[in-house]
Write a structure and sequence with these properties.
Elements: E1 6-7, H1 11-16, H2 21-33, H3 35-46, E2 55-60, E3 65-70, E4 73-74, H4 76-80, H5 85-88, E5 92-97, E6 104-108, H6 109-125, E7 133-137, H7 142-154, E8 157-160, H8 167-177, E9 181-185, E10 188-190, E11 193-195, H9 197-205, E12 213-217, E13 231-233, H10 234-239, E14 250-251, E15 255-261, E16 269-274, H11 276-289, E17 297-300, H12 307-319, E18 323-327, H13 338-346, E19 350-353, H14 355-363, H15 367-370, E20 379-383, H16 389-399, E21 406-409, E22 429-430, E23 443-446, E24 458-464, E25 474-475, H17 479-486, E26 498-502, E27 508-513, E28 517-520, E29 523-526, H18 527-535, E30 540-550, E31 554-563, H19 571-584, E32 593-596, H20 610-617, H21 634-641
Parallel strand pairs: 5-18, 7-8, 7-9, 8-15, 9-12, 12-13, 17-18, 17-19, 19-20, 20-21, 31-32
Antiparallel strand pairs: 1-22, 2-3, 4-14, 5-6, 10-11, 15-16, 16-25, 23-24, 24-26, 26-27, 28-29, 30-31
This protein binds adenosine-5'-monophosphate-propyl ester.
């Protein structure tokens, strides 16, 4: 990779930044050699504790045990709201930009605090207690963040379910978490179109006996069904509630939230995060990775349904007293200049988005950008999947005017916050590389046998050698799966499921998942989830799902489907199967390609050879490799001959 262009840290950026190169090197070293001292200091500097902790960190990876700040007490909503009231009560906390470009609304810290307290009292009136699970199935409205903070205030554990998930997907998550309450909106609005969230929830709730009450936020006023005694309007709850709500004192290790994500089996995993360590990691990484300074306007375009929305729209920014922008709409409505118009309108300084959005907007051409004033921008961020150098360079030049560093941040739902990233004032950049470990993170690369690959350059499976504050503590209701999936493969280390290489300078490049998880438009999906959905259809005998390179989405979904005997393979059936997957999981899981497969390439022991399917999906027919172990090699010829044109 000798031809990689290095973008040096501009002097103006380094001079202004919290962390420059020398500080990063010294502090990183300290964070590894004196982990306790480093995080003790940060925990005192960044958070307000009602009781200090006794032990900073304890861990035993093989047993799946990790604890941070044992004995410490604090409340997340107090840290995100109350402690800012004196110094910045009248400063914007949340700037909400609606789907409609003419509508926005700002909540100051005082206003946000008052509404969170009232809603927390409202939840108590609905019978919610510390430890109860509360589901939030909402559009990108401020009430979603308010609901999260209200749960945190009273010690309830929230599980936010992305508003694009289907009733079935919602039902699975409600059942697994045994949620007591769900908070929904009547409808969500995206790109001018309404989505019937309350109707979806009604559908899911038919088989969720644990849910006793449904709180409904009125977003559009569209007509909805109403179940007396179960459903209650959000505004009615607020009207009757006091804005005085003393916060529950939480233990550092008490659960804060569950967030479901995909693994390599069909069943989503309930990633559980706790209180003190998570919030600390969120706050410290938000400040240093984005080089956040008081008064900056910060915008992360993620949805609160994903971890990025949790950590970098709500918890990290609010813990730091930041102004965080929440956007309800989509990048292309009313047209492809929308992101840039929002940047101009709210004078956004820090902008954090996903490569898929950058690629989609790049494809629309520069004219949509040129009409907007982007001079307020100072730092750009990328998350969710590897960013291809072409998109990186466009983002850097056309959006950032060549002056804004791009932080390509690698992390996961499980990690709670960013673990690998450049820092704006400290790291020279290489397009497509997530560069360097964040404070306290010690990466390694191992080969398939688990032996560490040392030296540079090197390539292997990424592992993490010690715990960090924001890491998840279990999979809800299935601690054994936590141990098996993350700590059993490489004893003594955490296995994230990604491959990586280190270049000759020691900078990291993520090469993608090494398991059966794919990444479609930055959405993480288990191939097994889509396969399970497909085989539920009566026409389908068997299905194999592969991620294949897609210009905009990063990876597209390529499915090989074997039909039941006697079922005719028609275009109508193809469409029906696409609709079926949308119904089972949600539109994000729509197959891009369905290829009829009279047979699938299997070994004699019956294992599908995905390597071969991957090559067929990519049309790399010359690279199929050894097919001699197949039970019936002729199925491959058939698949090659009948590849659909894309
Ligand atoms: O494969 C990595 C990819 O996204 C996975 C985590 O997905 P999720 O839990 O949904 O969280 C996404 C947002 C944090 C990782 O295992 N990934 C995430 N960020 C990057 C990335 N791959 C390459 N570069 C990144 N910056």
């Amino acid at each position: 990779m000798s031809d990689v262009h290095i973008h040096k840290v501009p002097k103006a950026v380094a001079d202004h930044a919290h962390i420059n190169k020398e500080v990063y090197e010294a502090e990183y070293q300290r964070s590894i050699e004196d982990t306790k001292g480093f995080w003790d200091e940060k925990a005192r500097e960044f958070l307000t504790w009602s009781k200090p902790w006794d032990v900073t960190v304890e861990h035993d990876f093989p047993k799946g045990e990790v604890k941070w700040f044992t004995g410490g007490k604090l409340n997340v909503s107090v840290n995100c709201l109350d402690r800012h009231l004196e110094t910045r009560g009248d400063q914007p906390a949340i700037i909400w930009e609606s789907d409609d470009p003419a509508v926005d609304k700002t909540y100051t810290y005082k206003e946000l605090h008052a509404e969170v307290c009232r809603f927390a009292n409202g939840l108590k009136a609905e019978g919610v207690k510390k430890g109860d699970r509360v589901c939030i199935y909402m559009p990108m409205v401020a009430e979603a963040a308010i609901a999260m903070l209200a749960c945190a205030r009273i010690g309830a554990v929230h599980l936010v379910v992305f508003g694009g998930f289907s009733p079935d997907a919602l039902k699975d998550r409600l059942l697994d978490s045994e949620a007591a309450v769900i908070i929904v909106a009547d409808e969500s609005v995206r790109g001018g179109k309404a989505v019937p969230l309350k109707a979806n929830a009604d559908q899911a709730l038919k088989s969720c006996p644990s849910v006793k009450s449904v709180v409904v936020v009125q977003r559009t006023g569209g007509s909805i069904d109403w179940t007396d005694g179960r459903d209650v309007w959000y505004h009615d709850l607020l009207e009757n509630a006091s804005d005085d709500c003393p916060a529950e004192e939480m233990d550092s290790e008490d659960p804060l939230f569950i967030l479901y994500t995909s693994g390599s089996t069909g069943k989503p995993k309930g990633v559980l995060h706790t209180t003190g360590g998570y919030l600390l990691h969120a706050a410290v990484s938000h400040k240093y990775v984005f080089d956040y300074h008081d008064g900056d306007v910060y915008w992360c375009t993620a949805d609160v349904g994903w971890v990025t929305g949790h950590t970098y729209i709500v918890y990290g920014p609010l813990a730091n007293g930041a102004q965080t922008l929440m956007f309800e709409g989509v990048p292309t409505y009313p047209d492809a200049s929308r992101f840039w118009k929002v940047v101009e309108k709210h004078k956004v300084n820090i902008f954090y988005t996903a490569p898929t959005a950058i690629r989609a907007l790049m494809a629309k051409g520069d004219d949509y950008v040129k009409t907007c004033d982007l001079s307020s921008l100072r730092v750009l961020g990328s998350v969710g999947e590897p960013i291809n150098p072409e998109a990186w360079e466009w983002y850097h030049k056309v959006i950032g005017g060549g002056r804004c560093p791009i932080v390509d941040t690698w992390w996961q739902t499980e990690t709670g916050g960013i673990l690998m990233t450049p820092l704006p004032g400290a790291t020279d950049l290489k397009a497509g590389s997530a560069m360097q470990p964040f404070f306290g993170i010690e990466f390694g690369l191992v080969d398939n046998e688990g032996n560490e690959v040392t030296g540079n350059p090197a390539e292997g499976i990424l592992v993490i050698k010690k715990p960090w504050p924001g890491m998840f503590r279990t999979l809800f209701g299935d601690h054994q799966r936590y141990i098996d999936a993350y700590f059993a493969n490489y004893p003594g280390m955490y296995f994230p499921g990604d491959g990586a290489r280190r270049d000759k300078d020691g900078d990291y490049w993520i090469t993608g998942r090494v398991d059966d998880v794919i990444n479609v438009s930055g959405h993480r999906m288990g191939t097994a989830e889509v396969e399970s959905a497909l085989v539920l259809h009566p026409a389908v005998a068997e299905a194999a799902v592969i991620g294949y390179p897609h210009d905009i989405k990063g990876q597209g979904i390529y499915t090989f489907v074997t039909l039941m005997d006697g079922v005719e393979a028609t275009d109508e059936l193809r469409q029906e199967l696409v609709n079926h997957v949308r119904k089972e999981i949600g539109p994000i899981a729509s197959p891009d390609v369905i290829q009829w497969a009279p047979g699938l390439p299997k070994t004699r022991s019956g294992k599908i050879m995905r390597r071969i399917l991957r090559k067929i999906s990519e049309n790399l027919i010359d690279e199929l490799g050894d097919t001699s172990t197949l039970a019936d090699p002729s199925v491959v010829d058939d698949l090659i001959a009948n590849r659909p044109s894309q």
